[in-house]
Amino acid sequence: MNFPSKLIEEAVEQFAKLPGLGKKTAMRLTLYLLQMDKEEVNRFGQAFIDLRNHINYCSDCHNISDLEVCEICINPVRDESLLCVVEDIRDVMAIENTHQFKGKYHVLGGIISPMDGIGPSDLNIESLVQKVQNGAVKEVIMALSTTMEGDTTNFYIFKRLKDTNIKLSVIARGISIGDELEYADEVTLGRSILDRTPYENSLLQ
Questions:
Q1: Which residues sit opposite 103 in a β-bridge?
Q2: What gap in Å lies between CA 166 and CA 82, rounded to an integer?
Q3: Which of 6, 8, 42, 175 lies in the 20 to 30 Å Cα band around 122?
């Protein structure tokens, strides 16, 4: 692709780094920005600078937050005895949109994937074990994607927590095998949370 300007070329290259964007789409976005008011473009760019420089990860659940502790964790109405384990922030948002879960979360920051070089030590699993050992948690719901990697992570967490006195459950298979939570519709996901089953039962399937 030939560019009339080095500035345009650089902008296109940066847009093209985003997942799902090819050079043609990146070019279209760049030209659109050129048509916008300069102040709007400045606000657009500043939003991402502020995001990268000032975002926090909740010291309790590892969710993304503007503060040291996220709004869900400090909400006194949430049930701290009920803990939902998810892969990342997208899953928290998906479950929250169902309005069916009233407990708290624990964000792993990924799932075990040997092919990608991601092992248990790369995830927020030790802090999960510590949280359970502290005694407030009565049930852990493992709400990970129904993929091989998700199931592997579920099993690892089960092994780490099986000797505790808590209830270990997994979301119902209303979520199709191989699906990721963020793409599930709200009704199906909400029902999968409500119809969760003991994790041991899933091992027998």
A1: 79
A2: 10
A3: 175
- Give the side-chain half-sphere CA count within 13 A for 44: 11
User: Strands across the sheet with 197-198, in order?
Assistant: 103-107, 79-86, 139-142, 167-170, 197-198
Q: Using DSSP, how many helices (H) and how many strands (E) does the chain show?
A: 9, 7
| H or E element that contains 106 | strand 103-107
> Into which CATH architecture does domain 60-203 fall?
3-Layer(aba) Sandwich (3.40)
Query: What pLDDT digit, counting tens, does each position of 77-130 carry?
Result: 999 999 999 999 999 998 999 888 999 999 999 999 999 999 999 999 999 999
Spell out the domain ranges in the chain. Answer: 6-54, 60-203
Q: How large is the angle between the packed helices 89-96 and 186-194, nearest 10 degrees?
A: 90
Q: Tokens at residue 178, please?
A: 């191989």
3-class DSSP state of 150: helix
Topology (CATH) of 6-54: Helicase, Ruva Protein; domain 3 (1.10.8)
pLDDT in tens, 42-75: 999 999 999 999 999 999 999 999 999 999 999 9
| Packed helices 6-16 and 23-35: angle between N→C axes, nearest 10 degrees | 120
